[in-house]
Design a protein that fits this description.
Helix content: 40-55%
Shape: globular
Strand content: 15-25%
Radius of gyration: 15 Å
Mean pLDDT: 75
Oligomer: single chain
Number of strands: 5
Number of helices: 7
Largest sheet: 5 strands, antiparallel
């Protein structure tokens, strides 16, 4: 089952700097990251979303997914699609991944101007390494995806099963 993890940093560089640490955990097979992206919320409130290519392989969701997902859920809640587009099941799958709205609000509130965050879909992680990741960031938020949401993401975006 996938876990959505968000490591929040009280600066604009922390998320990108932590990618190397997560890579080390992956090489040691202590974590399996299905996909990842990092966000920089600039002091003026603008956001930059970049896929963390060094953490994921070619089966990754891609920058378009992360841009839509992060923009829709955290900084562009006013973004709406035409009624015709909303009926398109592929669009619905992109925007509704079954993630709890309270969790999404908590993440959005945690990433303040001047902060950065590392978003990861994690397929495997031990409790010990969860604690270790929490110590790397100022705030660690995570939620387990339901089996239905997990399956929907895997089917829609081609996420590989755990190793």
């Amino acid at each position: 089952m996938l876990k959505l993890m968000v490591l929040v940093f009280a600066n604009e560089t922390g998320a990108q700097e932590t990618i190397g640490y997560v890579q080390t955990l992956q090489r040691q097979q202590l974590i399996t990251v299905s996909d990842a992206a990092f966000v920089i919320r600039q002091k003026d409130g603008g956001i930059k979303v970049k896929q963390a290519n060094r953490l994921v392989g070619s089966g990754a969701l891609g920058g378009v997914f992360w841009g839509l997902f992060i923009g829709q859920h955290f900084w562009l809640p006013w973004l709406t699609l035409s009624p015709k587009a909303v009926t398109d099941t592929s669009i619905n799958k992109w925007l509704d991944c079954g993630i709890n709205d309270d969790f999404l609000r908590e993440v959005g509130d945690a990433i303040k101007p001047g902060y950065s965050a590392l978003f990861m879909f994690v397929a495997y992680l031990t409790d010990k390494n969860l604690t270790s990741l929490a110590m790397q960031s100022d705030t660690l938020l995570y939620t387990d995806l339901s089996e239905e949401s997990d399956a929907r993401l895997r089917e829609t975006f081609g996420i590989m099963d755990e190793i």
